[in-house]
Amino acid sequence: MRMRxxxxxxxxxxxxxxxxxxxxxxxxxxxxxxxMLLVVHQLWWTNREARQGxxxxxxxxxxxxxxxxxxxxxxxxxxxxxxxxxxxxAATGGPTGGPTGGxxxxxxxxxxxxxxxxxxxxxxxxTIPRLHLRVPVAEGVSKPDVLNKGYVGHxxxxxxxxxxxxxxxxxxRNTHGEPFRYLPRLRRGDTVQVxxxxxxxxxxxxxxxxxxxxxxxxxxxPVPRSLVRPSYGYDEPGYYITLTTCTxxxxxxxxxxxxxxxxxxxxx
Length: 268
Hints:
Helices cover about 20% and strands about 30% of the residues. With about 270 residues, it is of the alpha+beta class. It is elongated, with a radius of gyration of 26 Å. It starts with 7 loop residues before the first helix and ends with a strand.
């Protein structure tokens, strides 16, 4: 009977392989835990922090305006009667729904507020009943100063609420409060409200652009229309609102846009 001879060198080699495999396994497990923690941070913690901050800002704006909360039903009923929407030719060049506390005046049936919001300043509240959404609107679309706080950002250079032209907004679809996560659920005829320190503006969803290029800047022009998909958009001046977000979920490759038209204004 032949006996197998095990050399010490072979034993050391096998022990080295076992240590290497064990060490590699530990590294993979550690990396998996770290990745899991990053996912939890992005998908849960940032949402939690941003939503709480956004809710506090809405409450602060309501206290500043002396109200206990807006009409979440999406209608302009109750309180003062709604005023008719002025024709585009009657609009003034001044911003409407500007910084809270500004001196308001009427012109062409709209409420015009002197001054402009400062960059990153939260100055309005967006309410979308179908999405159960009530979120601050801040000036600008900076990620660290606006969007990552769970706010909706106002595109600089576009109009203010109630003003002739296009009041254009952007919001995250995933992480950091994700206020526009369910934007695809909106349907034609849904209401969208914008409250400022001087008035509440009610828009009605009119058109939905499911997907376009992230560089399609025409969707936020005064008369919004898609450059990539020209069949989507408008041909005449009006009082528009545009809501934009990334699509598909968890990517930033494309954009979607929801357009609405102003139907009423109720002064405070």
